[in-house]
Amino acid sequence: MNTLIKVSAAPHLGSWHTINWKRQYRTVRRLQTRIVKATQEKQWRRVKALQRLLTRSFAAKALAVRRVTENSGRKTPGIDGKTWSTPAEKWNAINNLRRNGYKPSPLKRVYIPKSNGKLRPLGIPTMKDRAMQALYLLALEPVAETTADRNSYGFRPHRSCADAIEQVFNNLNRKTSATWVLEGDIKGCFDNISHKWLLEHIPMDKRILRSWLNAGFMEKGRLFTTDAGTPQGAPCSPVLANMCLDGLETILTNRFGRKGTAKASKSKVNYVRYADDFIVTGISREILESEVKPLITAFMQERGKRLARTVLIFTEKSDQLSRATDRVPGLPASPGYAQ
């Protein structure tokens, strides 16, 4: 039997200050819970219907506007020079978040310094485009979290870099642990993801997704088109990148067994990823080079030709343990592995 949830439309009379935020959170949370259940049951038509219901609700629109007007980038405008700082602007923004007639603006290209002295390009969407992305992410994130790799830690709720490093430590800190590690660094991950792959595999409104991917960016008064990648700086990008990279752990598990099983104990292949950096452990360099590496290359090739150029480095586990204990205070130094 189908159950119904009453999703309120935007009140005819009201203001930003009259919004009952607890009620809006409850409404969105209930719908997200139903999306999770439908995803677990692989009822994709139902997922689509629930996502549509969520993105049309006043509650989700209000939370999307609240997110982009209260985060650290709220004072940074896109190419239109606009920010939403007053209650009236925020209220009007809620009522103007509509799918019909929506066309995103190009992103404003800016550069920020990296730790190595180089510059990282960022794409700054307009406030409306940020809010639309935040709105549709409320419907996409329940799917992303349900289908995510078990040992993926970057850009996910309640997970951190420290959690990833601790998992690496746990995979290597015993005398019977794997002795070799393959380190993967996906160069230019955000810039090189295949648009075709995203449109075929990301379970969300395809017209909206296509419009984001094709929006392009403005730099020095010129419009540049994009034929691959998701722009760093856009709210949707971390989730899209994670969903693109999810699935590699399942491939490795199917080939080498789940951790704790007899099959896995023979190869000691374990996988940990944080955003676009990952490691795979193995009992020998040979198994990592001859069996694991081809699986990774094929996986990346499917998601973008340039992703297949992922830098893979082989190291002994003592190097990884030393980095883990250095980076996370409280992790004990691992005895007995000095080389």
Textual characterization of the structure:
This protein has 339 residues and is of the alpha+beta class. It has two domains: 16-147 and 195-228, no CATH class; 161-190 and 244-327, Alpha-Beta Plaits. 47% of the residues lie in helices and 12% in strands. The protein has 14 helices and eight strands. The strands form two sheets. It has a four-stranded mixed β-sheet with strand order 2-1-4-5, with no helix packed on it. It has a four-stranded antiparallel β-sheet with strand order 6-7-3-8, sandwiched between helices. Helix 2 packs antiparallel against helix 5 (127-147) and helix 3 packs across helix 4 (87-95). The chain is globular. It starts with 20 loop residues before the first helix and ends in a 12-residue tail after the last helix. InterPro entries: DNA/RNA_pol_sf (IPR043502), GrpII_Intron_Splice-Mob/Def (IPR051083), RT_dom (IPR000477), RVT_N (IPR025960). Residues 93-339 form the Reverse transcriptase domain. It comes from Escherichia coli. Belongs to the bacterial reverse transcriptase family. This is Reverse transcriptase domain-containing protein.
Span between termini: 63 Å
Radius of gyration over all CA atoms, rounded: 22 Å
Q: Provide a count of the helices.
A: 14
Strand arrangement, major sheet? 2-1-4-5
